[in-house]
Amino acid sequence: MTQLEHMGDECVGISEKAVIGMTPVVEFQKLELLSRKANVLKNCMADRGFREDPAWRKYAEPLARVSASQQHISFDEAIETMRKSDMLLFKKQVQRPLYWISAKN
């Protein structure tokens, strides 16, 4: 297990615990819960020396533009949706940069 995988697992656990007592009832609360989990994960990973990889952003922007156009949503919503899913990937992907990179780089 790589350091990224180890820290990622640890931070995912922390983000799950951060919302354990919350029970979403309406759609807005479900979105709020997902955003809180993502924010806790991002802060936890930053505390452990990881940040968003600029290569991921460069890779994701064109895909988000296409997705936004196809789904009739804003670019910001499309990139944020991609971010929330990709920030949960901690193993090297084929033909795709990981979201996280060591802040030392």
In short:
With 105 residues, the protein is mostly helical. It has helices at 3-18, 27-47, 54-71, 75-86, and strands at residues 50-52, 100-102.
Q: Please, could you describe this protein's structure?
A:
The mean pLDDT is 94. The chain has a two-stranded antiparallel sheet with strand order 1-2. The chain starts with a helix and ends with a strand. The protein has 105 residues and is mainly α. 64% of the residues lie in helices and 6% in strands. Helix 1 packs antiparallel against helix 2 (27-47) and helix 3 (54-71) crosses helix 4 (75-86). It contains 4 helices and 2 strands; from the N terminus they run H-H-E-H-H-E. It has helices spanning 3-18, 27-47, 54-71, 75-86; strands at residues 50-52, 100-102. It is flat and about 40 Å long.
Structural class: mainly alpha
> What gyration radius follows from the Cα positions, in whole Å?
15 Å
Write down the secondary-structure element order. HHEHHE
Contiguous low-pLDDT stretches (5 residues minimum) are: none
Largest sheet: spatial strand order: 1-2
Total beta strand runs: 2
Instruction: Name the assembly state.
Output: single chain
The major pleated sheet works out as: 2 strands, antiparallel
Strand composition percent: 5-15%
Q: What portion of residues is helical?
A: 55-70%
**Envelope shape:** flat
Mean pLDDT figure: 94
Q: How many helices? A: 4
Q: In angstroms, what separates the terminal alpha carbons?
A: 20 Å
